Amino acid sequence: MNPQAPVHVRAEDDAWLTVVYYRFRAWRGRRPFWAGLFTLLGGFPIAYFPYADLRLGNVTLAMATTGGAGALIIGVLLITLGLALWFQQAIRVFAGVAAILLALVSLPVSNLGGFFMGFLFSMVGGALALSWAPGQPDEEAPLQDAAAAAHPAPADPADHPPVSLGKADAMAGPQGIPGPRGTETAYTSETTAHADGGRNSAG
Question: How far apart are CA 199 and CA 203, in angstroms?
């Protein structure tokens, strides 16, 4: 299921069993393997038990029912769906729904779904088929590059040395408004009247 899984490259000293294992692992990862396996296994007890005989000494117990033909059809269909999940991944949704419906029908038709064994296997296989999705290529790196371009990192102050300001720039006020000169008072309201304690001087 993971397309980014490392591909095994055969070395000269690798045993043939190791090569077969890695090739099977790569084949299994590209398809709903476990869904097909559980569906396949669920079809065998559903199709087998209606035609099986249980011998207890000299007594033979036949488990055949009137729905023996229906049980055989359900079992064969489940086996076919399990194989289809391995080799036709495009029909996984249809195969999953069909496996669940056939498992439910097998309860009254085939000895309680093959004594609940086939029923449980088929239900699990159908649920896995519905939940499986093919792997997508890893696209995290392009997304990270785009995010970095949209939100550039703040510049490092060490890379940009401070610029020395001239005398006129140092005296500038907020928003570039010139500040008071050296011969001017800091506040326009400060006059000679304020400097003399509130008494106006006439001259």
Answer: 12
Whether residue 101 has pLDDT greater than 50? yes
Amino acid present at 94:
F
DSSP structure string for 64-79? --TTHHHHHHHHHHHH
* 138-152 burial: b if 16+ Cβ within 10 Å, else e: eeeeeeeeeeeeeee
HSE-CB at 61 with a 13 A cutoff on CA atoms is 6
CA angle, residues 143, 148, 154, in degrees to nearest 5? 165
Q: Is the pLDDT of residue 95 over 50?
A: yes
The pTM score is 0.57
- Angle between the 117-131 and 68-87 helix axes, to the nearest 10 degrees? 30
Burial classification of residue 48, based on how many CB atoms lie within 10 Å of its CB (0-12 exposed, 13-18 middle, 19 or more buried): middle
Burial of residue 36, with CB atoms counted within 10 A of its CB: 0-12 exposed, 13-18 middle, 19 or more buried: buried
Phi, psi of 152 (to 5 degrees): -65, 150
Give residue 137's pLDDT. Answer: 62
Which stretches within the chain are classed as H helix? Answer: 16-29, 33-48, 68-87, 92-109, 111-115, 117-131, 140-150, 167-170, 192-195
**Cα angle: 80, vertex 1, 5; to 5 degrees:** 140
Amino acid at site 49: F
Instruction: Say what the pLDDT of residue 141 is.
Output: 47
